[in-house]
Amino acid sequence: MIEVGSYFLHGERRVMKTRWFTPWLCILPAVILVTIFLAYPTVRTIQLSFYDRQGRNFVGLNNYWYIFRHKSTLLAIRNNLLWMTVFPSISVILGLIVAILADRVSYEKVIKGIVFMPMAISFVGAGVIWKFVYAYKPKEVSQIGLLNAIVVACGGQPIAWLSQRPWINNLCLIIIGIWIWTGFCVVIFSAAYRNISKEIIEAARIDGANEWQAFWRVILPQLKPTIAAVMTTLMVFALKVFDIVYVTTNGLFDTEVLVNRMYKEMFLYHNVGRACAIAVVLFIASVLILGYNIRSRFVRKGG
Fold first, then answer.
1. The model's pTM
2. Could you say which of 108, 214, 232, 247 has the lowest number of CB atoms within 10 Å?
3. pLDDT per residue as tens digits for the range 13-49
4. In angstroms, what CA-CA distances link 228 with 115, 119, 155, 179, 272?
């Protein structure tokens, strides 16, 4: 091997000598972008969460005490917990059912395309669509809302879907999220289901397992890692849901969520400290959910 300048000659091949700082030059643009658009805003948000509404005077943990003691933020936390419980569960169940049943019919692609179509709509657009679906008018007036038009056509009284009891209002909004994200679940579960060895399923059937037993004892255990990943994704979305609530009710009728509250604190009430405190709480909650999911994966692999 003969060194010539910054190159090494290996027979007839010429290999360039890599300097120690070359890899750092390659990742430098990414490091700069992450620092400017992610690291610095995160640190600055945490810092401002300990200051007053103008971000000038240090107030300690007062903003955090406000979050966990004030009625409006406690209501938002309760609604977020409802979202994080109902929305992922129903979306995963429906997605799993459609993915497995669609795999057994010849028009599978058509079904999956129809179910996935709402995912191509923006969340704001979906909120506007469903706001018209839930629209309420007195019975004497022609109904423009699809649900109330059906109710009136069947002889019933129109219902103000988004201004009923709090749990009904929130469930109506959660249905919008389910309508959007079920298609995402179908695509992911369908891909995971196709990766399950057909020999294992056939062996279970040969051993006398019916379709229900094959699903619970063979298919479902194989899909558990995928279900956990999808559940985590949907829980994080439910934690930071904003568009649907903002477009349909803007938090009225006891449908407030934390991100919508953060938006109001920042842009309506001009309270920088409280808005940043809510952002920090959401950040910590998201990290805990993702961290638990990652830890569970490592534990399963280690076992």
1. 0.86
2. 108
3. 555 556 777 888 888 899 999 999 999 999 999 999 9
4. 21, 20, 44, 20, 36
